[in-house]
Specification:
With about 220 residues, the chain is α+β, with helices and mostly antiparallel strands. The protein is about 30% helix and about 20% strand. The chain has five helices and eight strands, in the order H-E-H-E-E-E-H-E-E-H-E-H-E. Strands 7-1-3-4-6-8 form a six-stranded mixed β-sheet. It has a two-stranded antiparallel ribbon with strand order 2-5. The longest helix has about 35 residues. It starts with about 25 loop residues before the first helix and ends with a strand.
Length: about 220
């Protein structure tokens, strides 16, 4: 009876080279082990990252405003400012009119504190220096001036000016030596104002009205 030649399973050739070597299925299994480890590494990395985040979140947050606060250059701090005195930028032609008593109100869009009684007039270029100190009182609003003798007063009362506040000129003093821009910065820590800024106490104490020439 002829031998049964039906194939019952895949044939595998055995040679001397392959004898004693691990079977292919085992090698395949070994080859897949690194992939399993690699697939596990993202979760381990995520766990490590989450741990780092928790440690960062647990660090104390510095309180806002802690530490010393630097003072802006040329800007008086609350302790240094003189609440009664303001440095005011003004064009030279207007200081001339004030000194000639043709202009007896200085008009502005803003209202200064009622504590302000002196305006240090900083003449813009080409003068670029404080030349006068003007004494004043509470500002007036349109309709309250009622003095046609001064330049611009009628227009102010009629509401034809952009300015909303008029500061009366009650007295005027001329500095014997104008305070230039460099001297204001270096000696008194005052930067040139675009509009106005508080004077420093040192300026008020060292440059006294008694040492100035009284114009009126």
């Amino acid at each position: 009876m002829p031998a049964d030649r039906s194939v019952k399973g895949p044939l595998r050739q055995t040679t001397l080279f392959s004898f004693g070597q691990p079977s292919l299925p085992k090698l395949a299994k070994a080859a897949t082990e690194p992939d399993a480890a690699a697939s596990a590494s993202p979760s381990a990395s995520a766990s490590t990252s989450a741990s780092k985040i928790r440690r960062v979140e647990s660090l104390p947050t510095p309180a806002s405003g802690s530490g010393s606060k630097k003072k802006g250059k040329g800007k008086a701090s609350d302790e240094d400012r003189a609440e009664t005195d303001v440095v005011l930028s003004i064009k030279p032609e207007f200081t001339k009119l004030i000194s000639e008593r043709k202009k007896n109100y200085e008009y502005r869009k803003y209202r200064l504190k009622d504590s302000v009684v002196r305006l240090w007039l900083y003449e813009t270029a080409p003068t670029s220096a404080i030349t006068y100190v003007m004494q004043t009182t509470r500002p007036k609003v349109p309709g309250e001036v009622n003095d046609p003798s001064g330049i611009g007063n009628d227009d102010f009362d009629a509401g034809r000016k952009q300015s909303k506040y008029g500061y009366p000129v009650t007295a005027l003093y001329r500095l014997r030596t104008p305070l230039t821009t460099p001297e204001l910065k270096e000696r008194f820590e005052i930067a040139v104002p675009q509009g106005w800024r508080y004077a420093t106490k040192r300026l008020v104490e060292e440059v006294r009205l008694e040492d100035m020439e009284k114009v009126f």
